[in-house]
């Protein structure tokens, strides 16, 4: 335990259970492996065109939301990876609509791949992934930001929803 009562890690950074991109990638790989080893029936349109169209549109939307969130951080000269200390509380732009737009973008991309593939296991794994992100990443980030920015972050939490 460190001086802030957390296990491991630098007290100036968030002690998340794993980097979110690796969690999403791990679930994608696991979903594809499970599709091969334990195939499940999935009722999606037989034609690949509607799946790829819907998936493609959602992937583009996810990338746009992700990029807007990352661009906000970049403009504020604060790092996106939680392994580095946050310099500024970002509350404007897309962060004025959601406290976690980057994760929303990642979920849209992830789910879109599950639709376009089509992969029932990727879609099923969305729930455990969401629970892991919510409690293993977001809750820890929120506690860190509250310690780091105090009342400014608490005020932000009352004004802006966690997701959308």
Written as H for each helix and E for each strand, in order along the chain, the element string is: HHHHHH
**Helix/strand/pairing category:** mainly alpha
Uncertain regions spanning at least 5 consecutive residues: 1-9
What is the CA-based Rg, rounded?
18 Å
Helicity, as a percent range: 55-70%
Report mean pLDDT, rounded to a whole number: 88
Describe the global form.
elongated
* Helical run tally: 6
What is the first-to-last residue Cα distance? Answer: 34 Å
The main β sheet shows up as:
none
Number of strands: 0
Strand content: under 5%
Structure explained in plain terms:
The longest helix has 28 residues. By secondary structure, the protein is mainly alpha-helical. It is built from six helices and no strands. It has a domain of 112 residues. The N terminus is likely disordered.
Write the layout of secondary structure elements.
Layout: H1 20-37, H2 48-75, H3 101-116, H4 120-124, H5 126-149, H6 151-159
Helix pairs in contact: 1-3, 1-5, 2-3, 5-6
List the main descriptive attributes of the protein structure presented here.
164 residues; mainly alpha; 6 helices; elongated; disordered N terminus
């Amino acid at each position: 335990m460190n001086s802030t009562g957390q296990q491991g890690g630098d007290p100036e950074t968030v002690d998340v259970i794993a980097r979110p991109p690796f969690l999403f990638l791990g679930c994608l790989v696991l979903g594809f492996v499970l599709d091969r080893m334990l195939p499940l029936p999935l009722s999606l349109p037989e034609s690949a065109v509607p799946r790829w169209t819907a998936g493609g549109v959602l992937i583009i939307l996810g990338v746009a939301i992700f990029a807007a969130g990352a661009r906000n951080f970049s403009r504020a000269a604060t790092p996106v990876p939680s392994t580095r200390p946050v310099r500024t509380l970002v509350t404007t732009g897309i962060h004025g609509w959601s406290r976690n737009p980057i994760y929303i973008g990642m979920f849209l991309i992830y789910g879109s791949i599950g639709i376009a593939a089509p992969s029932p296991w990727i879609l099923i794994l969305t729930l455990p992934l969401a629970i892991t992100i919510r409690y293993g990443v977001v809750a820890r980030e929120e506690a860190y930001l509250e310690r780091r920015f105090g009342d400014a972050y608490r005020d932000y939490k009352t004004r802006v929803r966690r997701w959308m």
